[in-house]
Amino acid sequence: MSRPEILFPLFADLETLDGIGPKTAKTLGVMDIAAPRDLLFTLPHTGVDRALRDTVEGAALPSTLTVKVKVGAHNPARNRGGAYRIHVEDAQTSFQLVFFHGRSDYLNKVLPTGSERVVSGKVELFDGIANMVHPDHILPVEDADDIPPYEPVYPLTAGVTQKTMFKATRSALARLPALEEWIDAAQRDRAKWPDFATAMAQAHAPLASGDLAATSPARTRLAYDELMAHQLTLALARASERAVRGRRSVGTQRLQARVRAALPYAPTNAQERAITEIGADMAAPDRMNRLLQGDVGAGKTLVAFMALLIAVEAGGQGVMMAPTEILARQHLESLQPLAEDAGVVLEILTGRDKGGERRAKLAALARGDIQVLVGTHAVFQADVVFHDLRLAIVDEQHRFGVRQRLELGKKGGAADVLVMTATPIPRSLALAQYGDMDVSILDEKPPGRKPIKTALVSTGRMDEVVERLRAVMDEGRQCYWVCPLVEESESVDLTAAEERFKRLRAVLGEGRVGLVHGQMPSAEKDAAMARFQAGETGVLVATTVIEVGVNVPNATIMVIERAETFGLAQLHQLRGRVGRGDAASTCLLMYQAPLSETGQKRLEVLRETEDGFRIAETDLQMRGYGDLIGTAQSGVPRFRIADMERQGALMEVAQSDARALLHEDPALQSPRGQAARVLLWLMRQDEAIRLISVG
Questions:
Q1: Environment class of 185 (CB within 10 Å of its CB; exposed 0-12, middle 13-18, buried 19+)
Q2: How many CB atoms lie within 10 A of CB 83?
Q3: Is residue 410's pLDDT more than 70?
Q4: Of 98, 109, 432, 439, which shows the fewest CB atoms inside 10 Å?
């Protein structure tokens, strides 16, 4: 399938635009501008009022002004590099045009004495005289209309001027074809949006500062087009995943009832809702592709295990994958008691399994004797064959790309997929990253979880904190001590962690302090974790490797050093490592004074709430979308116009619109479907285009 001909002018060479030669085209490449289309999607970020006035008299200076003047005497510079001054008069007063390194022949040509000209530029006072230094525009009066009354200001890179951008965008706008409408007519009427070409023209020719706002109808429309294309791509991916026939796995409740009978308290409403949603998906003929999003301690393990039991009740097997060996072992420990209640065979497979032991596990798996398997990505390997895999659960999606999700699905030709994440994600981001999935949210804490007390302490009170740890350890409790991320370099982090480890060991005693960090060989890391889990060490000094999933119910204090250097979501995850047992727990956020205003605000949000979703929304508002996801989160698109922080609600509309369109017109053959195909080409959604052409 090739690009529709109507879009050819927008994907031509940049050099076909006015004012762009090979050198400028290459420079624009730095700004990710490779075609006229990219230039159109690079909108002005501010504007300058250049409306024609009678006089500079009475204007608040310095400011940019546009006036008609009569050109008077020229006073060339007395020495090299000096100022060349030209006396001019407007309707009410006189002032000077100033040029440094000005050349007489050129200036006499553009500003001949006695002529009338329109000049526009920044006017400032020097020694009580108004000066316009290097005017931005000098035009004969009859060409005055060439200066836009409100001039758009574009983002630039070295070697590209505003004039070049202005000229090139006008040239690109002139090529805009009339495109058929891809937005639902009712939606467009409700929102009062212009058509695509009008929206583009208005966005590039603002009449006042209000037109530059993300909320202006033209910009909102263009943002929606970007979000719509992105959500269409995800909806097509979802449709193609569903097109692979799933298996119906209908639970009998037999095993689930045994687990429920053994539970010390009833599941929360949120857990019940999630179990019902997953059960319905598994019983349907399509493949399940669901995200289970739960806050720290919201009880994801129980929901996941109930889902695994549905697979077993239906006569099949289930697998649960974790990103690391430590986490896989932990899942094994937390699922073991539930498996015993249900009477199912649970086994673990990791990279450590070698030789005869591994062969025996694989044989049992292929025979169907192992009903639930827990493992690391070792369960992907070619020699791992299931008897009848019906459900694959992937833990901590953000370390796991869409590719691997699909790989895993292939293991059980039509296995249902459930992805679990313990990171509460703001709704708009969840839609951008997981728009192809259905989402279940656990937003209640099970009974019996004690609230965690959170306190802010300055690093100046380090000694008091250490004494507090000693007292807690004497009562037989344990503590985490998380070291700051000093710089991006792991070696510096390492030194910080080792220094802290040595100092705490000197104060608290030789065998009472353990250390884990990212640079350790995994066997050493596992051993240090195991000693802490067994209660042999009282304090575990760590870099953020303990962020996800470590479970030590006896640990009741979490010290986070230089808490102001961490992200909110990360601090919330770390805090969730304590408060897992029956004793009251505390999280101490140690900061280096003085705290910046935003630093203080962020730490106070943590002190006030344990609601991970509220924390994630605050984080998004304070740090912005780009910072929040970081570079590692490659699953999230970069939009040129849409603003995720402020236009999250548009994303929801785009998702339901995209899904509805595909529901009515799965092959995008209707007139609106054809328009949507053009949109996908326009927005460079190659992935989606491949899916349609395959479909």
A1: exposed
A2: 18
A3: no
A4: 109
